[in-house]
Each structure stands twice: as structure tokens, then as C-alpha cells.
Amino acid sequence: MKTKLRKPEASGYPWFKIKAGTTEYHLRIPCISTASALAAYYSGVVIATQGAANEARKATEDLSGDQAVARAQAASEQVLKAQVEMYGALGFVLLSCWRDPEHEMFARQAWLSSYAIRKAIRDSLPLDGFDLHLVDQVREAQELMAEHQTDLKTAFGLLAWDEMVESGLTHESVQTIATECSRLVFESIKSKEGSGVEIIADF
């Protein structure tokens, strides 16, 4: 069953829009619990990616010894894996913010239904009650998990990224949009300018 998206009733925080070509998409900063978990997940991927890049740099700086080529190759593979994780993480941030009532993101719908679908697949139960397109998306996410040895969120993020590319956006555009979404999520949790709230207790 597909979730009917509610049309945004107002503009401004926490709603925001992106424009790609002549098309506008509606997005929303998630609720605080989701935003906090999303920020922690994305931060972890960023730290791991930076670590992989540092290790690769060290490996290329020291090419002496019999294992130099092997070390450099291993470091290169780690960087490539970290890049995939980063793309997936950005895609999942975008998926989590997506709320457009006119342009449905199937990766998001599949993510929201994934627990029930995965449970049915695991228990060999009938899948007739699910949207078959969403079932295919969940199966594809599971394949991506195995292929890239990653987690479910990252796998669905990769699906979301690819879906946006199939809709006509370039990889660069998807990265720009998703990066901005992540910035807004972080800012929603902790404002550098303060809350502007004054507490007055008069008993």
C-alpha cells in the first residue's frame, strides 16, 4: 500500500523547496528524533570516509618495502568503498527529507515498508499484499547491502540517489541537493545563533 503524501500547507521552516530545471520539489526537515538519528548516522559515515582518505594518503606517501603496492591497492579500495558509503548516506538524508506530494520517491516508500516486506521474505510468507514495485526495491536494497557490504540505510540511500538520476538529475545535482539537506538537518538540531528564547519565571 502506498502512503499518500500530504500536500504542504505552508512555506517556511521546517518545509523547504528545491528547484531542478523547471521542476520544484517539496522537502521537510524531519522531526527531532529522526533528525538526531540521521545526523549521527551521516556523521559516522563522514568520519569513516575521512579516515579512509587519510589512510590512503599515508599509503601513497610511503611506497617503500615489499608490501608497498599491496598497501596502496588496499587503501585505494577502502577509499572507493568509503565513497560508496558517502553517496548512500547522502541519498538516505535526501530520502528522509523527501515529502513531495506530486513526485513520489519509490525508494522512500520502500524504506517505510521495508521491515514488513523483509519479514515476509524471511518467513517465506505471501507478498501479494505488498506493492510489487516496492518488493523489488527492497530486494534490490538487500542485493546492494551484500554487494557493497553495507547497511540497509546506505543501500536505500543508493537506491534514492539512482532514482533521482533516472528522473533526469545529474550526479552533481543530486549531491548538491543532498548535501544541502544534510546541512539543514544539522542546523535544525543545533543553531549557532542560539534559540532566541528568553525564560522568565515569575511565581
Structure, explained:
With 203 residues, the chain is mostly helical. Helix content is 63%, strand content 6%. Strands 1-2 form a two-stranded antiparallel ribbon. A hairpin with a 2-residue loop joins strand 1 (15-20) and strand 2. It is globular, with a radius of gyration of 20 Å. 29% of the residues are buried.
How far apart the termini lie comes to 53 Å
Would you count the extended β strands for me?
Answer: 2
Radius of gyration (CA) equals 20 Å
**SSE pattern, N- to C-terminal:** EEHHHHHH
The structural class is: mainly alpha
| Strand fraction | 5-15%
Q: Report strand order across the widest sheet.
A: 1-2
**Shape field:** globular
Q: How is the main sheet built? A: 2 strands, antiparallel
How helical, in percent, are the residues? 55-70%
Low-confidence sequence ranges: 1-5
Q: How confident overall, as mean pLDDT?
A: 85
Total of DSSP H or I helical runs spanning 4+ residues = 6
Task: Write a concise keyword list for the protein shown above.
203 residues; 6 helices; mainly alpha; two-stranded antiparallel sheet; globular
Provide the fold topology.
Elements: E1 15-20, E2 23-28, H1 32-61, H2 68-97, H3 106-122, H4 132-148, H5 152-166, H6 171-189
Antiparallel strand pairs: 1-2
Helix pairs in contact: 1-2, 1-6, 2-5, 2-6, 3-4, 3-5, 4-5
Quick rundown:
This protein has 203 residues and is mainly α. The chain has helices spanning 32-61, 68-97, 106-122, 132-148, 152-166, 171-189, and strands at residues 15-20, 23-28.
